[in-house]
Design a protein that fits this description.
heterodimer, A: alpha/beta, 3 domains, 5-stranded parallel sheet, 4-stranded parallel sheet, globular, B: globular
Chain lengths: 404, 148
């Protein structure tokens, strides 16, 4: 039993909890609470009501009149565990009739849990330590960060933006830089930028983890130093644009970094830049790519950043490719299950959610499933391989690069 | 006192309040049927949910019955242009004239219940009536890039 520190729950946060009408619209489409496991406490409504009950029990009118009601450690641990089973996909935000910004609510709730010693989950600690010690979540040495670029064609030049000015700074992200299965995402992105004649570079081994994983698990203050380090390097590189190929890095740089410092350049996702290049005629896909493809909207691009049309226009520009939509797409797209630290702490749950999304893709009859996020790619690819699906998982830039 | 034959009495107190009450009644009936009879999977009914609907229903229905009692009993203020209070008038048709004897007591009960309902709002799920519009406005004012 303990007294809860509610200093992390500001006036807006408390108002949001009171604004929930308990209608339950969020419970049906919640991938973790409603679909993959039927547990009310994991659903947005369940979390809101339980947390509200807890803090009102300690700070509400009744607590002031009759004394606070402290919750047992088991009840608090259960709330924390259930709160961390959320992928923060934002599906609840889409369906909420009260228009609550639930994405912000869940991240704020995790900050509250961390400040009370209830989060993150023990499984997240390994990633946190890796980021603190190696500056990446994969426990890989800093000196290997730019190794991916060795596999690029010899005629492609990637500048070291800290030594030589480049117009565009490509923020590669830890997963594409270190994971051998995702490395092609960085290679294809660099190839596409090169073919468009973009003057681009990277921060090389000096690029630091953006801190997305830690931010999503409630460790906002621990990210401050990392963010300030990256912002200082951005200032030194002084590009006119920062491009990311990772949806998680994009969200973090665009939405979270302004809280830590002013960025010297606009942050765009690779799909936005490529879409502009295609529309301006600087990139012209010519080679046919035969097949039927369906696009999975990453939560961090779609619901978190309203970026839906650009990837579809890119796919539509590739000759020969037939694009079909999954029944649940754009704002209503199912989550892949990997976000919010769920894959790390609850891999089985992540697998169940991912299986639902792969089934969505299979129902379209498409042979290719594509996305624009390394975590979605990892998660969906693992499920496709595990269930022996005939789908081929690709990154969007891979399809485009094949066509150039 | 409100002018017995004036527009405010006819169109605001009689017709306007009746219309607003009727709309509430329709909404509350739909909510009650959905929550207590249809019971869709996403709806979870606990005491605060039931109390909110039943409390509101009691106040709204009580208002119509009170109006009907006033008209049936010929209480001052309920004798002219009574058809403007269309639902109260309909109820008055089935009430005896002697119901007017209970008008003052019914008025007191209705008044106390209405006051209690207002006092109950901040401590109930009905608080979302106040919190939700404020949050929607605040969310709209906040930049998407800098969220907190």
């Amino acid at each position: 039993m303990k007294k809860l520190d509610i200093s992390k729950l500001d006036v807006l946060a408390l108002m949001r909890f009171d604004a929930c009408t308990r209608c339950g619209e969020c419970t049906a489409t919640c991938p973790t609470g409603g679909e993959a496991q039927d547990v009310e406490l994991v659903t947005p409504r369940g979390k809101i009501l339980r947390l509200r009950e807890f803090y009102k029990g300690q700070y509400g009118l009744r607590a002031r009149l009759l004394g606070p009601k402290y919750q047992s450690d088991a009840d608090l641990d259960e709330l924390a565990k259930r709160a961390y089973e959320c992928t923060i996909c934002g599906q609840c935000k889409t369906v909420c009739p009260a228009h609550l910004d639930t994405i912000d609510m869940w991240e704020n709730m995790r900050e509250f849990l961390v400040s009370n010693g209830l989060g993150p989950m023990p499984e997240h600690q390994q990633i946190v330590k890796s980021i603190e010690n190696y500056d990446n979540p994969w426990m890989q040495p800093r000196t290997q960060r730019s190794r991916w670029a060795r596999k690029l064609d010899k005629d492609i030049t990637v500048k070291d933006s800290l030594k030589e000015h480049s117009d565009v700074l490509y923020f590669v992200g830890c997963t594409a830089a270190y994971d051998p299965n995702i490395r092609n995402m960085a290679l294809d992105t660099a190839t596409v930028l090169s073919k468009a004649g973009i003057d681009f570079g990277t921060l090389g081994n000096e690029e630091g983890c953006c801190g997305s994983t830690m931010l999503r698990t409630g460790l906002r203050e621990q990210v401050r130093k990392m963010a300030e380090g990256n912002i200082a390097r951005f200032e030194q590189a002084a590009p006119s644009m920062i491009v990311t190929s990772c949806a998680g890095c994009y969200k973090t740089l665009r939405q979270d970094y302004p809280m830590f410092g002013k960025l010297p350049a606009k942050v765009v996702h690779i799909t936005t830049l490529v879409d502009e290049l295609l529309r301006s005629g600087k990139l012209v896909p010519t080679k046919r790519v035969e097949g039927t493809v369906t696009f999975h909207d990453p939560c961090h691009l779609g619901r978190h950043n309203d970026l839906y049309d650009e990837p579809r226009r890119i796919l539509g520009s590739i000759p020969g490719l037939k694009v079909v939509e999954m029944e649940r797409n754009r704002e209503e797209a199912r989550c892949c299950g990997a976000g919010g630290g769920v894959k790390t702490a609850f891999p089985d749950l992540a697998g169940k959610i991912s299986a639902l999304r792969v089934e969505d893709a299979e129902r379209t009859g498409a042979g290719i499933l594509t996305t624009s996020c390394p975590f979605c790619y990892q998660s969906l690819k693992a499920t496709i391989d595990a269930k022996g699906s005939k789908l081929r998982m690709t990154d969007l830039m891979e399809l485009l690069r094949t066509s150039l | 006192m409100i002018d017995e034959g004036g527009w405010a009495k006819l169109w605001v107190r009689d017709f306007g309040f009746e219309l607003a009450g009727a709309m509430m009644l329709v909404g509350l009936t739909i909510a009650a049927v959905r929550r207590f009879i249809l019971r869709p999977r996403i709806v979870r009914t606990e005491l605060p949910d039931a109390a909110s609907i039943l409390f509101l229903l009691a106040v709204v229905l009580g208002g119509f019955i009170l109006e009907g009692m006033g008209i049936a009993g010929g209480i001052p203020g309920h004798t002219q242009d009574i058809e403007y209070s269309f639902l109260g008038y309909a109820i008055s048709l089935v009430l005896p004239a002697s119901s007017g004897d209970w008008y003052d007591a019914a008025w007191l009960i209705h008044g106390i219940m209405s006051a209690l309902l207002i006092a109950y709002i901040p401590f109930s799920k009905l608080f979302h009536m106040i919190a939700t519009p404020i949050v929607i406005e605040l969310e709209g004012m906040m930049s998407k890039e800098v969220r907190r």
